[in-house]
Amino acid sequence: MALIARIAWRNIQRHRGKSLVIGIILFLGALIMTIGNGVVSGMERGLRDGIINRFTGQIVVISGRQEQDNVIFTPLGKDVQVITGYEKIKHALETSGYVDKFIPVGKGLTLVLNENGDVGYSLVLGVNFEEYQKMFMNNVKLVEGAFLNKDDRGILITSGNRKRFYDELDFWFMPEGVKLNDKNLTDEALKYKDRLDVKNDIVLMGSSMENTTMDLRLKVKGIVKYEYLDDYWKNFNIIDIESFREAFQYVTASDAAVNIPSYQRKLLETDNLDSLFEDNVVTKAGAGNKKYEIAELIGKRAARKKPGIDSGAYNIIFVKLKKGGSIEKSLRKLNDAFKAAGAEARAVPWGNAVGQLADLAMIMRGATIGFVMLIFFVAVIIIMNTLSMAALERVSEIGMMRAVGAQKSFISGMFFAETAVISSVFGGAGIIAGGICISILNLLHITTDNNILELLFGGNVLRPTLGFFDIMIGVIELAVVTVIAAAYPLTVARRITPLDAVTRD
Amino acid sequence: MNMIEMKDIRKEYPLGETVVHALRGIDLSVQEGGFISIIGPSGSGKTTLLNIIGCIDTPTEGSVKIGGEDITSLDDKKLTNIRLFKVGFIFQTFNLIPVLNLLENVEFPLLLMKEHKLSKTDIRERAEKAIEEVGLKDFLDHRPAELSGGQRQRVAIARALVTNPQIVLADEPTANLDSETGAAILELMKHLNETEKTTFIFSTHDPDVLKYASQVVKIRDGHIESTGKPGRSLKTGKTRSKAHVGKAGSTGKRRR
After folding, report:
1. Domain end among A310, A343, A376
2. Model confidence over A61-116: pLDDT tens digits?
3. pLDDT digits (tens, 9 = 90+) for B38-66
4. Would an 8 Å CB–CB cutoff place B83 in contact with chain A?
5. Is residue A419 part of a domain?
6. Looking at A343, A376, A400, which one is the last position of a domain?
7. Same domain for A486 and A435
């Protein structure tokens, strides 16, 4: 081994030019690979942390009847099944021991109506806004107006949606009492500022699964923007959960427990229709204590709600785990707990729930890896060619070694050692240089507003990271490149026979 | 005892659409301790014959035994081991490893044998002794490029002998040397043959070299044309190349 290393090292020195060419290629390859890995790693971490911390948590609980896991960016705003038996789910989450926080939300697509007859659409999240902000690091930032306070009814429209509504419906939403701010107007709106059709409320039309519709007029409380990944999340306006349920006719028990005239009550209570025609129909008045199965009355989708914000109908529950919690284990345990509690719900990982956004991240990652691999492919070809030429130039030396008794394995070892030494020295230097570049990139604090770059950055700031795992990946990639690049030249060298050396001489 | 036994050796090389018959049926027996010279004009088959004896090349037909072992059916690994343990080579162009110094070049085959329980000290001692025998003790740290042609050939001899091979093959060992250096090299080889009882087979077409040989085998067109002692008229083989050549009559003992 020492002999192989000695010969390899001296051969590298002897063929300095070739060694340097191969070394520089490996250095650049390792440098680009390290930076690429750092960016990919930072992107993945940024996206993961950003989406988990600010939008979904690690786990998303959905209805057991929901077919697709992707419940956030559903195609054409397709309805998400209603979660029933929320109290059982809530109990399972609260008693799990590994769940840090959770928040139930409603999610749906409404039409936006107006007097002109034009119809728009709006995706809405029905939430307890204060709880939502607490759960997701105050990710919703105010642009104009005010946030939704406790018990407020109203809507928070995103800047992105406001612009879209203006483009599609020709009116400009603003919270009441707020003056037009030129800075917040789009170029088009600014151009027609004097003729701007400003509206302070919005009419949403939600529909139940049975195609019954409900119009709901809501005050525009504020114009907001998501601090992170706004380009992807801006389609979601936020309304209070009660308004959401109303719009989507998730009829509640409190709605059902209305005071009705006794004749209506009699009408509902009676089993004998003939009795309706008796004289003493109107006998009692006041609220009854009978609860009506509204779901049966207006459709299966409608869910019954007992008074209280934490119970009732929702579509999605976002769950954050305690620090260090394993998503896989928690998913397994949660699903077992739901099953044991008889809750018709299922827990899915956040990546499945956000669907296309996670896919986009994967595509970006794939593209970056592909780019790095392309560079290495070119490097492999160049190194392979250079080493093959080197092998052919050393026929006399290699053939003579074989003539005096060196086995093929010795030649392989010697040749591989030469490549490995060059690879470790120059590739190692490339990885170190890549690490330094990553640190410099972090110090430069490069920001972006471009939505594609935001994905690549994993946020609006480029924060490439290089952990031990990334470095190990780099070392492995370098080793693979070395092995692949040396494989063919090595077979060329192994094929050299003593006779080749003698013949050449 | 016959160190080498070759029977009906034929070697053919395809050359385009034709076939070159390098050896056309050689029978050759060489006794242990011989100092044999193979002579003949260029293209007569001398080098091919040496290559086959040295397990560098394989015959198209016929059988070869080295020290009683038939080598014609051996795989590459076994042939390499025979080259390492039984045969020493001295090439016309020296063929030293350019990145190793004189001592390391001579140590090289011993290091390849290291797996056969040779200690580092043994290796160093044997290499230094071989170098001393060829008179280059003062050049241990020199790289081949820093040595003259004669010195390089002496290093090649030391490397060929350091493993105590049964046979040393030398292909025109003096071709690239001036006559004085060439003579010195042959004196050295002869001395080692006599003292170490090593079988030497060398090819040449230099008539001055022949006087050192104990036996001469003359080859022409792939046949053994004649055999005999140098300085006498050689026996001619009419129908089939056949030669039995004996040892030089040395009284020395082999090193082990």
Report:
1. A343
2. 999 888 888 888 877 667 888 888 888 899 999 998 899 999 999 999 999 987 77
3. 988 888 888 899 999 989 898 999 999 98
4. yes
5. yes
6. A343
7. yes
Q: Compute the distance between CA of residue B201 and CA of residue B35 in angstroms, rounded to an integer.
A: 6
Residue whose C-alpha is closest to residue B35's, from B151, B193, B228, B236: B193
DSSP SS3 for A369: helix
Could you tell me if A337 and A463 lie in one domain? Answer: no
ipTM of the complex: 0.85
Window A:414-433, CB contacts with B under 8 Å: none
- CB contact under 8 Å between A403 and B95, yes or no, is yes
The neighbour count for residue A18, using CB atoms within 10 Å, is 18
Is A11 an 8 Å CB contact of chain B? Answer: yes
pLDDT at position A300 over 50: no
Nearest chain A residue (CA) to B97: A397
Q: Are residues A375 and A484 in the same domain?
A: yes
Q: Name the 3-class secondary structure at B69.
A: strand
Task: Pinpoint the alpha helices (H) of A125-185.
Answer: 129-135, 159-169
Contact criterion met (CB below 8 Å) for A126 and A183: no
Residue in A10, A405, A408 closest to B84 by CB = A405
Pairwise CB contact (< 8 Å): A502 & B84: no
My answer on whether A339 and A368 are in the same domain is no
| Both structure tokens of A376 | 């290495």
Closest CA of chain B from A499, distance in Å? 6
| Residue A386 counted as domain residue | yes
**Taking a C-beta distance cutoff of 8 angstroms, is the pair A395, A500 a contact?**
yes
Q: Is the residue at A190 inside a domain?
A: yes
Does residue B115 belong to the interface with chain A, where contact is any CB pair within 8 Å? no
| Segments forming the whole domain that contains residue A33 | 2-51+359-497
> In terms of DSSP bridges, do strands A201-207 and A213-226 run parallel, antiparallel, or are they unpaired?
antiparallel
Q: A96 and A232: one domain?
A: yes
Whether the CB of B175 is below 8 Å from some CB of chain A: the reply is: no
Question: Is A477 within 8 Å of A40 (Cβ atoms)?
Answer: no
A214 and A331 share one domain: yes
* DSSP SS3 for B237: coil
pLDDT category of residue B249 using cuts at 50, 70 and 90: very low
pLDDT tens by residue, B172-201: 887 777 777 778 778 878 888 888 788 899
Tally of domains in chain A:
2
For B107, nearest residue in chain A (alpha carbons): A3
Q: Is A397 on the interface with B (CB under 8 A)?
A: yes
Same domain, A178 and A113: yes
Judging contacts by C-beta atoms under 8 Å, the chain A residues touching residue B13 are none
Nearest residue of A to residue B52, measured between CA atoms: A499
As separate numbers, helices (DSSP H) first and strands (DSSP E) second, chain B gives 6, 12
